[in-house]
Amino acid sequence: MEAKSSNRCSFWLPKKKRSCANTRIESSMFCGNHSQRLEGQWIPCPIDPSHSVLQENLEWHVKRCPLLKQTVALSGQRFYQKGINAGNEEEEKLGSCCSDSLVTSEMKRKLLYSMSVSQFHQLIKKIEAVHGGICKEIDDSYLSPEACNIWFNKEIDRKLPFQEKHVLQQGSILGNLEEIGALKRCKINVECCESDLKEKDDNSVSAVVEFGAGRGYLTQMLADCYGIKKVYLVERKSYKLKADRSLRQKENLVLERMRIDIEDLNLNAVESLHGVPYVAVGKHLCGPATDLSLRCCLSRQDGESPVLRGLAIATCCHHLCQWKSYISKLTVTTSS
């Protein structure tokens, strides 16, 4: 045990009240993540800025960066169009009303901390006034549709993860889509029979696009309860324990997972969606991802474009929203 612990990193983690459990690197008391290093030696990776690399290793790293293979594969896809949903056209129309620079959470915090108490209270009043003027006609709607009873009553495959709070949230999202007529429950259990298919009209929905899909269990619930036959999961990260395996076991269900940033997705260029009526869903679409998803769905359409029948998005992390991505900026008026 002593030999094993002696090989561990000596960096102390205050929140966990223990030392780092990673193996230390040679000639150091720390692991690669916590080794002492000069900030000037490390620079953001040009392919994936979420991690840094030693400047002396940059040339070697860019040839082997884990994101490189994905980037090369994406560049060959018709639906990949860099920054198509970023909102640059609106910014150009606004001219000097906004800036191209990214406003980080740290910059926002510094601005708030620099305010006096009276300035802060004035800001709160402005926010409340704007919110009250826009959201006064928005009603809360928490639904538990009968179609989702197999999930509410835990009548699902026991291998599927079940957390009650998530199931209730997902059920309400789907229930509200059903309430506005965007979803219709199949008549017999959860599978559509041939007679149901013959009865479907032009307003029927056969596909779902889930933005920020993560593991995809919102779509799993939708497919179980509403008989959706085409599934498109949009997610830029890689996840384990995904719903994909269970979804692929469904008869006649077509599944396509697109590992791409929503900002770069041209939904009109997805050939298998041409002319197909679909619903768009998203749960916990963080910050600007909500705006990007709306712009992706509401972009200019032609005869071959997918047909949007309904959209339901649960937002989160509003403090991460950016003016550059904001979809309704043309309706905002400014005064001198």
TrEMBL record:
Any one GO BP annotation for this protein: tRNA methylation
EC number of this enzyme: 2.1.1.225
Function: tRNA methylase which 2'-O-methylates cytidine(4) in tRNA(Pro) and tRNA(Gly)(GCC), and adenosine(4) in tRNA(His).
Protein name as it appears in the record: tRNA:m(4)X modification enzyme TRM13
Gene source species: Arabidopsis suecica (Swedish thale-cress)
Ranges of residues in domain CHHC U11-48K-type: 42-69
GO molecular function, one term: zinc ion binding
UniProt keyword terms in alphabetical order: Metal-binding, Methyltransferase, S-adenosyl-L-methionine, Transferase, tRNA processing, Zinc, Zinc-finger
Enzyme class (EC, first level): transferase
Catalytically driven reaction(s): cytidine(4) in tRNA(Pro) + S-adenosyl-L-methionine = 2'-O-methylcytidine(4) in tRNA(Pro) + S-adenosyl-L-homocysteine + H(+); cytidine(4) in tRNA(Gly)(GCC) + S-adenosyl-L-methionine = 2'-O-methylcytidine(4) in tRNA(Gly)(GCC) + S-adenosyl-L-homocysteine + H(+); adenosine(4) in tRNA(His) + S-adenosyl-L-methionine = 2'-O-methyladenosine(4) in tRNA(His) + S-adenosyl-L-homocysteine + H(+)
